[in-house]
Amino acid sequence: xxxxxxxxxxxxxxxxxxxxxxxxxxxxxxxxxxxxxxxxxxxxxxxxxxxxxxxxxxxxxxxxxxxxxxxxxxxxxxxxxxxxxxxxxxxxxxxxxxxxxxxxxxxxxxxxxxxxxxxxxxxxxxxxxxxxxxxxxxxxxxxxxxxxxxxxxxxxxxxxxxxxxxxxxxxxxxxxxxxxxxxxxxxxxxxxxxxxxxxxxxxxxxxxxxxxxxxxxxxxxxxxxxxxxxxxxxxxxxxxxxxxxxxxxxxxxxxxxxxxxxxxxxxxxxxxxxxxxxxxxxxxxxxxxxxxxxxxxxxxxxxxxxxxxxxxxxxx
Length: 316
Hints:
There is one protein chain. The chain has 316 residues and is mainly alpha-helical. It is 54% helix and 6% strand. The strands form four sheets. Strands 1-8 form a two-stranded antiparallel ribbon. α14 packs antiparallel against α16. The two termini are 22 Å apart.
């Protein structure tokens, strides 16, 4: 669910200002805050042109996949129920990903076949000659060792990367000025996400405990890159991680910013697209604390979901 498009959008993307008011844990109104669709990033436009297709055609393809595959829709409903979210949030994320980031396969079975093609492959997470397990074993990461849950552990490690390694030379090694996930967790090419849910490997590691708790899938290990890829490629497991991403976004906005986004699929789709829900919720909370009543605001990706909501809800 976090590639080039996600990184072009800053935290302010999710903050739209309305007249000042005092409220707590209030539901965000349904629909879009923007009358017109926000600009689509150039990378998404170029990728779609390179595939000799269009956003409309890609949207129709994934919509039709959902319309004709009752098995997939059944899995979505079951998974959404396990995570306490409405299934339209998962539909929105799938439609957004396959409209703007990748092209949908013709059937759910194609996703299983693609996942199987990675089985048994030998690869690792790392940068140059340093594996990720060796890297996070450095003294700089010692502050993270007190965290036992996967989300806080990997969030802490990502923060350390940002503060101490990104774009810096440490111990004679020059590290790229790029995201933690792009440098250490994508052995094939940067910006790569996989499968039905287009989940990033680092995101999967962060949410491993939640998915284990809710769905019973084995916890992930950064030393087992093939196991992580299996989880995000296999449609059944990938759906669980999608639901976990959405559940975490809803919880972050409610707990941190006192805003309930559970009734607005365009907002959860936006957060699925751009990630970092915790940081963005903090940014929104700061705006609210300043005295202005701020609603989160959808980006181009979430705008489409709210705009086509009646059609997408009919798929369920």
